[in-house]
Amino acid sequence: MKPELDLLDTVSDSRARVRAHPAWQTGPERIYDLLRTATKLRAMEITAGMTSDAFLTEAAVPTRLPELSEAERKWISTRPVNSRTGPPPEVLRAAVDRAAVTIEAYRKAVPEGQVPDAFPLGEGMTAGDMVRVLAVIMGVASLCEKTAHRLSRLETTLAHMPVSQLMALLAEMCPTVSEAHRALAVERLTYRVGRSCRTSPLVRHGDTVIICPPLVTPRAVDPIMLRSAAHDPRGFGRIGREQGDRATAWAEWLRATPGAVVAERVPATRTDGRSAGDLDVVVVDPSSRVGLCLEIKWPIEALSLPEAMKVENWTTSAAQQLDRLRAELRAGMATAHLPGDWPPFESIDWTWCVGTPQQLCLRPLPTPEVHATSLRYVQALGTPPDLSTLVGVLVKPDLPVEGVHFEVAKRSFSVGRRQVHLDVLGMSVDRWRPRFR
Question: HSE-up of 46 (CA within 13 Å, CB side)?
Answer without folding.
Answer: 14
